[in-house]
Write a structure and sequence with these properties.
By secondary structure, the chain is mostly helical. It has eleven helices and five strands. A three-stranded antiparallel sheet has the order 3-4-5. A two-stranded antiparallel sheet has the order 1-2. Helix 6 crosses helix 9 and helix 8 crosses helix 9.
């Protein structure tokens, strides 16, 4: 194996190999450790640590800045001039320089120098997998406090941890359920009253007065009930109108038909039968309808 890895001093050194030779890995490790120490110190002091900006987020931020810096209103519109007291079109405004327009739309660009040494890409670079972070005793105790206040509502508990997602909170619940099921059961059975002030401070969210919210909810409930009553009364009124129309139509049919008479038909027939005679007051005649034979 040593013979296979031995440098035979043939071939040409690649650009990457030359960069690796010039790179001082001791200095790189020192900078990484110093950066990590600064982040931990800021986190311990309670300072807001900005999240690491990815390439997609940086591009989106630059696009939003360009849109914000772009002047409002149409810049390329047809203009008119007054020549000898007459209004004529300005022929220069009928043409648009696309290169100038593209340069204005692009706006300033940010120069970012990246290489395979400063930015390492592997199979997990573009994956949606979240980087796991260790749970210390303080964060675990805060997790159980949230579990006692909100139960298994992991979305509400996740708001207490700005640097963690709902998936991570659920994974923590599953891990604690396997490791210490007694404490999990006790936290779920012993509910704790929600402290709005502490929850607002932990989530960086301002909540209104509970009495004001209850009053607004009561007004919305009363308005909804009034709308329901109006809808029910309108439906009843519509049903009464339909019933009145049906009764009027039935009365009109009853006036046209006086009566129904049943009489035996005269003459000889094959078999015995009855005929039903309708007498109309308008036509004055009689019409026989054979209902059936016996």
């Amino acid at each position: 194996m040593a013979d296979l890895c031995r440098d035979i001093k043939t071939g040409k050194k690649s650009k990457r190999f030359q960069e690796l030779e010039k790179l001082d890995w001791t200095e790189v490790v020192r900078k990484q450790r110093a950066k990590k120490a600064r982040l931990e110190a800021a986190k311990a002091a309670g300072e807001d640590i900005p999240a690491t900006e990815s390439v997609e987020q940086r591009l989106e931020r630059l696009a939003q800045e360009n849109v914000a810096n772009r002047p409002a209103g149409p810049r390329h519109a047809v203009q008119v001039r007054v020549v000898n007291g007459q209004i004529v079109l300005d022929e220069e405004t009928l043409q648009v320089d696309r290169r100038e327009l593209a340069a204005e739309n692009e706006g300033p660009r940010e120069i970012v120098e990246e290489s395979s040494l400063t930015r390492r890409i592997n199979a997990g670079t573009w994956s949606k997998r979240e980087k796991p972070e260790r749970w210390d005793q303080e964060s675990t105790d805060r997790f159980y406090e949230g579990l006692g206040m909100f139960g298994t509502d992991f979305e509400m508990i996740a708001k207490m941890f700005p640097d963690r997602s709902r998936r991570q909170i659920k994974n923590k619940f599953n891990a604690e359920e396997r490791k210490d099921p007694g404490r999990v059961t006790k936290a779920l059975k012993t509910r704790v009253a929600v402290n709005i002030d502490e929850y607002s401070k932990a989530t960086n969210t301002q909540f209104g007065d509970a009495r004001e919210l209850e009053r607004e909810l009561e007004e919305m409930r009363a308005l909804h009930e009034a709308e329901e009553r109006q809808a029910i009364e309108a439906a009843k009124e519509l049903q009464r109108e339909r019933q009145a129309v049906q009764e009027a139509e039935a009365a009109a049919v009853g006036e046209n038909v006086i009566g129904v008479m049943t009489s035996n038909t005269g003459g000889k027939r094959k078999g015995k039968g009855k005929a039903t005679q309708f007498i109309s007051r308008h036509q004055g005649g009689a019409e026989e309808v054979i209902v059936g034979t016996i």
